[in-house]
Amino acid sequence: MIVILCFFMYVLTCACTTDGENIILPKLAAANGWEYTMVLNLASVAGCCSVIGNLFLGKLCDKKGPKFSIILGLLASAVFVFLYATATSIAVYVVGLFGAICFAQSFAFFGANSLIANWFPRKKGLAMGFVSIGPPIATISMISVMNFLMNNLGLKKGVLVICVVLIIVAVVCFLLVKDTPEECGCLPDNMPMDKAETNGQEEAADAKISFTTLIKMKSFWYILIMMGIANLCSTGLMSQFLRRCTDSNISDSKAALMMSAMAIVGIFGSMIVGYVENRFGTRKAFTFFGIWWALAFVLNFTNIPALMYISIPMFGCVITFMQIFIPTFEISAFGRTNFRSANAILFPMISMIGQLTFVLISVCISVFGEVRYAYLFFAALLVVAVLISRGLKLENE
To answer: 134-152: per-residue pLDDT in tens?
Structure first.
């Protein structure tokens, strides 16, 4: 039940943010007669500023627990999504989108991830392999669903349906979700109850650490750099893939088909990455799939059609790379006791690093004239991340 609910939260966070923006923003701009480029620029500003909101919401999750964070995030997202999608003024649009991004990320990346840390500290990769199917499923389905709703019901009523779904999921979570398995008389990872004493000893050894101690740990900075690079590469790949294709004279329809193929492969790729992490450990899985991803970037860069087509399923396998490895590394390094404290600081900073991808891509376009040259930098950065991972000490792997 926990895995299924977290999966739906990942789907909904995409509907509230990236996938939803693809549908809502053009319609909103047309309805108000706004310049679409201005709407996009303001969306980028709201995305960057959401880092500030995430710092606050991450600490709130650390203090109040994942269930509180999830319910607050779902209800607030319903309000802010409706606010920005029906806005008639620029100010309301910016405030609404800022709130939607902050709270939608909160119920998934803080709330859902914290639940996984509490319930599956040892089988985290396997659990996240299923949960992180959410984003590719959302890419495949939610765009079509939202298009259908808004084309048939209109923008306001179509968005209202999404908001009602968010409220219903909040009610379900209120009734069913428990912060820890112990509240249900269970142990993490479905351990038998005769292991209760052993689990209690592990929890005692994994005592709560302070913010000051946390930022002095090498593990904190290693994970920040590694996952910041992963986010930078992921954002660069997904946000500019269509532009990268058109630079190489690939038609819009073929580029969209390639992106859909990536998302479909991503459904199975997510489960594969999760299984490999669970079977071989976080660091080994990260090393293998980090090199795999770097190679895919290099193959795509060549502009040789056969190699580009090979890179598409390779990209699909690691489309949820960041969603899986952020929580698995944090749980492995800090344990479930300190996961929320670490994630409250790491995730906003990782998000901020991800926004630097637009600077890197902009420089590559200015110097080389094409997006694809950024792929070489992405590949090199991923190799650096893999090398950094070799020096990371994982107490709980």
So the answer is: 888 887 787 778 888 888 8
Residue type, 106: S
Alpha helices in 132-251 (DSSP H): 134-153, 155-176, 196-205, 211-216, 218-239, 241-247
The pTM for the full model equals: 0.82
Q: What is the tens place of the pLDDT at every residue in 10-53?
A: 999 888 887 787 778 888 888 888 887 788 778 878 877 888 88
Burial of 366 (0-12, 13-18, 19+ CB in 10 A): exposed
Closest C-alpha among 318, 334, 351, 273 to residue 106? 351
Amino acid at 296: A
Q: Evaluate whether 34 touches 84 at the Cβ level (below 8 Å).
A: no
> What confidence score (pLDDT) does residue 204 get?
47
Angle in degrees, CA 232, 238, 244, rounded to 5: 100
Task: Tell the burial category of 287 from Cβ atoms under 10 Å away from its Cβ (0-12, 13-18, 19+).
Answer: middle
The tokens describing 30, both together, are 């047309």
pLDDT at 272 over 70: yes
The candidate with the shortest Cα–Cα distance to 231, out of 59, 352, 396, is: 352
> Is the Cα torsion angle 252, 255, 260, 261 positive or negative in sign?
positive
Helix (H, G, I), strand (E, B) or coil at 213: helix
Q: How far apart (Å, rounded) are the C-alpha atoms in residues 197 and 51?
A: 40
Residue 134's nearest CA partner among 2, 259, 315, 320 is 320
The pLDDT score that the predictor gives to residue 260 is: 83
Cβ atoms 107, 48 nearer than 8 A: no
Sign of CA pseudo-dihedral 321, 323, 326, 332? negative
Burial bucket for residue 395 (CB in 10 Å: 0-12, 13-18, 19+): exposed
Give the sign of the dihedral formed by CA 102, CA 76, CA 119, CA 6: negative
Q: Is the Cβ–Cβ distance between 222 and 388 less than 8 Å?
A: yes
Q: How many residues does the chain have?
A: 397
CA gap 397, 393 in Å, rounded? 9
Residue 207: strand, helix, or coil: coil
Q: In degrees rounded to 5, what are phi and psi of residue 310? A: -65, -35
